[in-house]
Amino acid sequence: MSTTTKARGAGYDVAKVRGDFPILSRSVHGKPLVYLDNAASAQKPQAVIEAERRVYEECYANVHRGVHELSMRATDAYEAARVTAQRFLGAASAKEIVFTRGTTEAVNLVASSYGRKHIEAGDEILITGLEHHSNIVPWQLLCEEKGARLRVVPITDAGEVPLEAIEATLSPRTRLVSVAHISNALGTLLPVKRIGELAHARGIPIFVDAAQSVPRMPVNVQDLDCDFLAFSGHKAYGPTGIGVLYGRAELLRAMPPYQGGGDMILSVSFEKTTYNDIPYKFEAGTPNIAGAIALGAALDYLTHLGLEHIAAYEDALLAYGTEQLGELPGLTLVGTAREKAGVLSFVLDGIHPHDIGTVLDYEGIAIRTGHHCAQPVMDRLGIPATARASLGLYNTRQELDALVAGIGKVQEMFK
Amino acid sequence: MSSELRELYQEVILDHSKRPRNLREIVGGCKADGVNPLCGDKATVYLALDGDVVKDASFVGRGCSISTASASMMTEILKGKTRAEVEALFERFHALITGDPSRPGTGGAELGKLAVFSGVCEFPVRVKCASLPWHTMKAALAGAGEEVSTE
Fold first, then answer.
1. A373 among known catalytic residues
2. CATH number of the structural domain B3-143
3. Which chain B residues contact residue A355 at CB under 8 A?
4. CATH architecture, range A49-304
5. Considering just the CA atoms, what is the radius of gyration of chain A in Å?
6. Which CATH superfamily is domain A3-32+306-413 in?
7. pTM over 0.95
8. What does the mean pLDDT of chain A come to?
9. Least buried of A122, A332, B12, B45, by fewest C-beta within 10 Å?
């Protein structure tokens, strides 16, 4: 990102931030933990752990149900988390915030509800070659059911998605565009605002998979002018099993429910059921109450640190890591897009990523190895797998130095 | 280096992973494809049988050091074995890498050189790396011809 945001990150106190995460003080195989698997899932600050504990110790009951004190307090806290998410994403209304289990469920919700209503035989859904399996498979299921077609925008060798390629793949039959904001496998930052403009110029809505971007940069749905956007709590330093789907109110209102059950209805009889208003229409059953409240705490934590500061800090760290790893003989960085965030994917000559991961683990270094739930990306680049170090707001240059030293040990062992 | 790591990556394993034996196709025999969906590794195992006896065994495709060494050493040890001996060896090898004491032959005497894979059982996520060539070989032996998955 720009040099101005870098300058603003100068005052970022990473030592203090690290102190907020209890797990970072533990060791693994006798070595200090170096956690570089943040794109898979991030660790939790004390504020999130405390928030979840407090729900169960102080104000737990089912929401939207009871007239008793605890139910009212739990409902207030649950709905306050929704408002936190609304403000965090810059949404116009809290009604546009649907709590889901995570990004995957959000994609499935839109594919199932919006897709079933609006996609017909011969229609096309456009995704990119960078997508995570969760932004591929739900659309494939929909296409199979409807006789529609999934169109994939090809990526370059560097892992970029040129706007011209998007334009070339859009067609008169395109009914929905669904793209990652940041590629989980390569770290490519996609120009989703520009992609949205191209889609909107043709009257096509855009869904943004923001699972990787929400934890590491400011994301504003009105600025991006997207129609749907989703992220997962656990990658944003919050709990597992909770996530957010943002949808423009008029789109959500026109969509049929996703699942049927309690809380998503106004009245039920065997003849006719009247559905509740948005967002409740999409939240059947007792939700992840404590998870949503603790997610609110995670978003507050990120806001408190400042997403711009986090972005600037992580960008500087990524630049440092890119430089350090780039100098290592026998190492090739995979994914060299000009606009990148948070991810250092690489391969070593003659050494399989699995072996890299196992040896680094014994150095206390947690990275991810494999296809990163993005097999088409690997196929496109002609490799079975990569080793991936992904950054979080608590990582340091010293930890990247430890990674470099660890890679040296791997190379020594398999030379 | 930690002792578990040294157990896993024994010299023999490193040697076979760097210089795999029988890395070639066999024309006219039976074969099967195997895949480990967790890491995307793929292997094709070829067998040439003479009646009930394995005359030749080979593989193509490379994965991590554990799966490559496992395939390499497996193709060496299979030659000259009968179908029944191969089946028994499969069972013993599987018991060895999963550290399953309830299965026969965990002691490893009959396993010969394959005993170097005993360290794998300390690394549950790597068991499938070692077993992929063996599952694939079993499929080739059965003549199933379908792709085998470790999942």
1. yes
2. 3.90.1010.10
3. 9, 64-66
4. 3-Layer(aba) Sandwich (3.40)
5. 22
6. Aspartate Aminotransferase, domain 1 (3.90.1150.10)
7. no
8. 95
9. A122
